[in-house]
């Protein structure tokens, strides 16, 4: 968590707008109440300087436009916040994240961890942590 805070704050300091896009099918499945998720998202926004949190509460069978790997949440945030996606990065730890970022026209970074170390499509960069991902985005490593 400390690495995530550092990574997010240095990106913020460099002028990046931070947006979280998250699939939460537990809501569609009735396992999680939307209110408790709102609490968690609020906490993350305050703690990690995230500008906007986009949540997809659907499951596969809902066929919505927002559930990653679809790029709906990214496109919506980009329009609302006037973000240039060609100069943006999607950082995630699942193939769904990388694919959604690619479809939205962003460069992509995969955070390895929970066994999802090889994914299709191939991300532009693979990092061990959010801190390392932010260093790469800021041009401090690997370029
Ligand atoms: Zn959705």
Task: Describe, in plain words, how this protein is organized in 3D.
The structure is a single chain. This protein has helices at 2-13, 25-28, 34-48, 72-81, 95-104, 130-137, and strands at 19-23, 52-56, 89-92, 107-111, 125-127. The protein is an alpha/beta fold and 143 residues long. The chain has one domain: Rossmann fold (3-Layer(aba) Sandwich), CATH 3.40.50.1000. The strands form 2 sheets. A 3-stranded parallel β-sheet has the order 3-4-5, sandwiched between helices. A two-stranded parallel sheet has the order 1-2. The mean pLDDT is 89. Residues 56, 58, 64, 66-67 line the site of zinc ion (ZN). Zinc ion (ZN) binds next to loops.
Primary descriptors:
two-stranded parallel ribbon; globular; 3-stranded parallel beta sheet; Rossmann fold; 6 helices; 143 residues; alpha/beta; single chain; binds zinc ion
Strand and helix map with partners:
Elements: H1 2-13, E1 19-23, H2 25-28, H3 34-48, E2 52-56, H4 72-81, E3 89-92, H5 95-104, E4 107-111, E5 125-127, H6 130-137
Parallel strand pairs: 1-2, 3-4, 4-5
Helix pairs in contact: 1-6
Give a short synopsis of this structure:
The chain is an alpha/beta fold and 143 residues long. The chain has helices spanning 2-13, 25-28, 34-48, 72-81, 95-104, 130-137; strands at 19-23, 52-56, 89-92, 107-111, 125-127.
